[in-house]
Amino acid sequence: MTCKGAGGKKAKYMYYFCDNCNLYYNEAEIEDCLIDYILDLVEYDFHVNKYFYHLLAERDIEREKLTEHQMYKDVLLKLWTMKSKDEKQSFISKFIETATLKKDENGNFDIDKINFRSSFVEQIDKLYDKGVVDFPTMLERNGKLEDTRISVNMNNEQLQDYLSTLKKELDINYMDLGEYYFHDDKIDENYDNKSKVAMIRDRHIEFKLKKNQKVIRMVAIKQYKNFLAKPEGKLRLGLVTHTTSKKKRK
Known about the structure:
The chain is α+β, with helices and mostly antiparallel strands.
């Protein structure tokens, strides 16, 4: 798709032209399809510009405080909607090289593929080297799946610095889940993880949490060459939780 804008004295708007089907689509349809990616990039851009040395800890503190009051996504949406048309175009082009969208049978757009700019990938690689890159993962809790994040490439010194910064603002707990052996993204179930709080069962790591423990993130303590590297060999896993009041967890 190619992007064009219209304006003059009239209200400015933006539309996209599909080179394959020779049809025009308005900005709102495309933005709705990409909004989750856009908000992730808004969050990244906001925090990278605001912090660096304590990036991971400061970001989690702000996220936890706003999430408790159901405000975090609203803040990101506001940062996005406050941008002008030109600012939105400039912002997206800073991170995304190309995006391929497809229409489903109901006429709604789905993301088929996104290619990020090499300059953005290089930035991520540098942050990865400092142990502040998140990867999405899932936790099953009380029969329900919860989205969470896992940080990789952390060393023990970075972990202690992260935890000490969190403790200044939040009531947190760190749970050492033990040592694990991975090969080609698969966990060795026969390996002794030397943990008193976690066990491996059916290729999953099981542990118990209290009702008022909200998961902030998991951490994997091991050094990898870059953020595309697959887990190989031994690594240590941990879980960071935020202890909340019973009133706030209904």
